[in-house]
Each structure stands twice: as structure tokens, then as C-alpha cells.
Amino acid sequence: MSPMLEVKDLKVAYGKIQAVKGISFTVDEGDIVSLIGTNGAGKTTTLRTISGLLRPVAGQILYQGQDISTVPAHDIVGLGLAHSPEGRRIFPRMSVEENLLLGAYGRKDDGIRKDLKAAYELFPILGERSKQPAGTFSGGEQQMLAMGRAMMSRPKLLMLDEPSMGLSPLMMKRIMSTVTTLQEQGTTILLVEQNARAALKIATKGYVLEVGKIVTEGTGEELLTSDEVRKAYLGED
Ligand code: ATP
């Protein structure tokens, strides 16, 4: 079976700055694939390019066998690929429910109420405070909202950019365990994280990025136990 997502020799630049310098990786259906690496490695740029928010200089992005590198961002969502961006980007003055419904924008089916209920089951606090302005939420609650909103487009592939950013260890654990729950419910996940340990623990496969290139890859377990990764990314001697 061909991979759900196949990125081939992808290059992305901001003017003269080359942010992604020819990376290749695959995401199979049912996987949690984690991209880890230090600040500025090109992780966010990679996700934004897959989402159609940036255009590659070279390379291919095959989603279910179709090259989507020139497909507009709103059509990419329609193909079943959702993106929960870094920094959450929720709309603070709109209510929690209005934020969630924005994730279903463009959907024409009548399953939206059902999916709203599923989001409230996944994150009960969103249901309890559905009428509250989203800007009153804590960082962790806003992260739940961002993930819930991304799920409202009914994605086959969910891309999460730094879901643990700024969260307490406890909240981070909850978010990571929810990522696993989503996988168990049938969503394939591409996860970008600075917190390498947390991201590799739940990953079926991981890739390490350094200044725009993939330097190591393996199963989550292989990377967690590799000396090189432990020294450079897990802060161990
Ligand atoms: P972080 O975890 O810090 O977000 P990252 O791995 O996601 O890091 P990117 O945000 O993709 O890295 O950045 C990759 C490189 O591209 C960096 O050198 C960054 O400075 C540069 N870059 C990112 N966005 C822009 C931009 N809008 N204009 C110019 N350069 C940019």
C-alpha cells in the first residue's frame, strides 16, 4: 500500500533563506510520525508547506498518491488534511463553539453537530464552557480547542505543530495521550515537537531535523534509545 503522505526531496525558501533543504519522509495510514529538532530546523515550514500555506521551491508532496504541492490550502483541508498551527491561532473574542465550528467551514454534510459532540467528549471542558470567549481559556485549554477545531474538518491526516508549547507537564501528558486516542480512533498524525521525549514516546516513526535536513530517522523506540539522539535532544549524557 502506498503511504498516506509522501514528501520527496522538498525544498522551501523564504527569499534567499533556505529553510528546508531537500527532505524526504513518509507517513503511513494509522501512524503517529514525529518530526523533532531544535529551533529553526524547518519543522513549522514543512507543515505549512504541506498545508498549502507556503509553496515549495522543489520537490513533491504526495497525499494519497496525488501531488498537492500546487493545490490551494482550502482545497487541501477538503481532501482530509487538517493543521493545528503553532501558537494555536484561536479567535479570542469568539466563543469556544464558534471557534470549533470554524473548523467545519466548507463542509456541506449534516454531521457537524455530531462532530461537535465528539469534540466535547474528547475534551469535556470545551463543552462545559462552549459559550465562553476562547480568549479566556488557559494555554492548555486553548490547545485542546485548537485540536478540537482541527478535528472538526474530519481529517484523515492531522498535523499538530508544537501542541505541548507552554504547557505544564501534566497538561502536556494529557495532550499527548489525546493524540494517541485520536490515532486509535483512526486518525493518522504528523506531529511536530520541540519536546523530543514526549513526541518520540508516542511515535510509530520519527525524523530528526537539523537546519533544514533530516539527519536521523527510525521508530520512536529506536530514536529514544539512540545515543546520538539522547545526547543532542533528550538532554542526557
Ligand atoms: P521552531 O521550533 O523554532 O518554530 P522550526 O523547526 O519550526 O523552529 P521554522 O520555523 O520552520 O523552524 O524555521 C526554519 C528557518 O526558516 C529558520 O531559520 C527561520 O528563521 C526561517 N524562517 C521561518 N519563517 C520565516 C519567514 N517568514 N521569513 C524568513 N525566514 C523565516
From TrEMBL:
GO molecular function: ATP binding; ATP hydrolysis activity; branched-chain amino acid transmembrane transporter activity
Domain ABC transporter: 5-236
One annotated GO biological process: L-amino acid transport
Gene3D superfamilies: P-loop containing nucleotide triphosphate hydrolases
Domain of life from the UniProt record: Bacteria
Assigned keywords, A-Z: Amino-acid transport, ATP-binding, Nucleotide-binding, Transport
SUPFAM superfamilies cross-referenced by the UniProt entry: P-loop containing nucleoside triphosphate hydrolases
Pfam family membership, one: ABC_tran
Assigned protein family: Belongs to the ABC transporter superfamily.
Name assigned to this protein: ABC transporter ATP-binding protein
Species per Swiss-Prot/TrEMBL record: Janibacter melonis
Source organism phylogeny: Bacteria, Bacillati, Actinomycetota, Actinomycetes, Micrococcales
